[in-house]
Every structure is written in C-alpha cells, then in structure tokens.
Amino acid sequence: MKKANKTINIQNLCKNYGKIRAADNINFTSSAGDIIALLGPNGAGKSTLMNMIAGYLAPDSGTIEILGKNIADNAMFAKENIGFLPEGAPLYADLSVKRFLCYMAELKNQKKEAVQKVAEIANITDVMTQKLETLSKGYQRRVGFAQSILNNPPILLLDEPTDGLDPNQKDYIRKLIKQMSKDKTIVISTHLLEEAENVCTRIIVLDHGTIKADGTLATILKHTKTKNIAEAFRKLTTQENAHA
Ligand code: ADP
Ligand code: MG
C-alpha cells in the first residue's frame, strides 16, 4: 500500500492567529530519502508548520500523519519518530551542555552513550561542561541539532538549522544533513536560497501560509519560467517585484 510508505502526510492543514493565516490549507506528503526545504520569507509560516508536525502546536483543522498514524491520536508514537530542532536557542539556559543532553536522552529513553555519540557528530565535545547560556549562537544551534538526533529518528525537522553559524559550520551541518538523509526524511526550513538549492532534493516554497510551489529545483524553474532559484523565489513570493 502506497500510503504506508509516506513518512509525513499532511492534509488540509490550517492554523490562524486572529486574521493572520499562518497555515492556509497545506497539503503534502514525503517519503524516506527526501530532503525537503521549506523555503519562504520571514513570516511565511515555516515555523508554524514545523511546530504542528512536531506536535508542539495544535492545528485549527486538517490532519497530520507520521508513518501512517494520525498524530492527534498517536502523540507518543509521533514524538518517538521525530527529531525536532526548534527555532532559537535550547531551553534550560543554566544547564551544562552535558546535563542538557543527558536529560533529553533520558526523556527519549536513550542510553548515556548516545550523548557522546551525538556530541561528536555535532562537533560540540569541547563545550560539554559549559552552560548553555554562555555558548555562542552557532554552538547553541549545534547543541539543539545534537539533541534532535539523540534517538536516531526516521524523520528530522530542523527549523533554520544553520541560523547563526559561520560559513564553515554551515558547510559542516549541510554535509551532515546530506549524509544522514539516506534512510530518513529531513525537512529543513530556511530563507537561504543556496541552502535549498544545494542541500535539498525537493523545495516547497511557502508564502502567507500557502504552498506556492513544490518540486525539484528543475521543475520549479520550469514551472515559473525562471533561470535560477533567486528569480523563482521573487516571482513566487513577492507581487511587488513582478513589475520591477
Ligand atoms: P516563519 O517561520 O516562516 O518566519 P512563522 O510561522 O513564525 O513564520 O509565522 C507565520 C505568521 O504567523 C506570521 O505572520 C507571524 O507573525 C504569525 N505568528 C506566528 N506565531 C504567532 C503567535 N504565537 N501569535 C500570533 N501570530 C503569530
Ligand atoms: Mg521561523
């Protein structure tokens, strides 16, 4: 059955904040191996969508299935199968990196060895005794990233994973994402065009809570009759520039 192969299946998803339509009838499905960029300007609804898939925010209407199960009725199952790097800094600012990761490992029923492993993968072993609040933004992002892969989940949701990283660190995380994607579904939100272009197998362009395009870079360029991602992005997300 085809449906069972879908890692994420989203149907008619809506979320309003007063008059703002943060998610306006979103539909998409994903399979293992997909690296999907949720690409859109600030306020497009990227974080809202990710928070809903991660089970941190309840939709107004619509359904989200993870590995064939509706998350509304299978919250634990969904949490076990999703790794989530939320926007911004990790919580628990006064914990050391090690304490934070050990705590998260405990919540996820992982052994202590998992902490050392993800610390090595995320390249943060040199700050394990430091408090989270004393870390640079780049290190904080990488601690959050380490936390998201603790239980080696089949679905990874990374909300602006390279935000605040220097160019070398960006490159490192992007390579890591590619390496890990073989048997996973990875969704990353970004407003960085080169990230969507170079890291992802599929691009979903979001604007004002709606999907403006969904496909490979090549299909999006063809569909928008543009030559590069920057041109396509402008055409899909800003009406004002259409006359420029
Ligand atoms: P993005 O992550 O793409 O920048 P968000 O999902 O954060 O976008 O926001 C989508 C829209 O919803 C924006 O207009 C934002 O101002 C609004 N929004 C997000 N969270 C809230 C909230 N808690 N209360 C009111 N409005 C919100
Ligand atoms: Mg956001």
Characterise this structure.
- The protein is of the alpha/beta class and 244 residues long.
- The chain folds into two domains: 6-81 and 153-241, 3-Layer(aba) Sandwich (Rossmann fold), CATH 3.40.50.300; 90-152, no CATH class.
- The chain has helices at residues 46-53, 75-81, 97-107, 113-122, 137-148, 167-180, 193-199, 217-224, 229-237, and strands spanning 8-17, 20-30, 35-39, 61-66, 69-70, 82-85, 155-159, 185-190, 202-207, 210-215.
- It has a six-stranded mixed sheet, with helices on both faces. The protein has a four-stranded antiparallel sheet with strand order 2-1-4-5, with helices on one face.
Strand content: 25-35%
Instruction: Write down the Rg.
Output: 18 Å
* Annotated CATH homologous superfamily of the largest domain: P-loop containing nucleotide triphosphate hydrolases
Strand order of the largest sheet: 6-7-8-3-9-10
Give the beta-strand count. 10
CATH topology (fold) name of the largest domain: Rossmann fold
Approximate helicity band: 25-40%
Pattern of helices and strands? EEEHEEHEHHHEHEHEEHH
Give the overall shape, derived from the CA principal axes: globular
Summarize the biggest pleated sheet.
6 strands, mixed
Q: Helical stretch count?
A: 9
The top level CATH class name of the largest domain: Alpha Beta
Low-confidence stretches at least 5 residues in length (pLDDT < 50)?
240-244
Hetero groups in this structure are:
adenosine-5'-diphosphate, magnesium ion
Mean pLDDT: 92
Cα end-to-end separation: 48 Å
Q: What number of structural domains do the residues give?
A: 2
* CATH architecture title of the largest domain: 3-Layer(aba) Sandwich
Structural class: alpha/beta
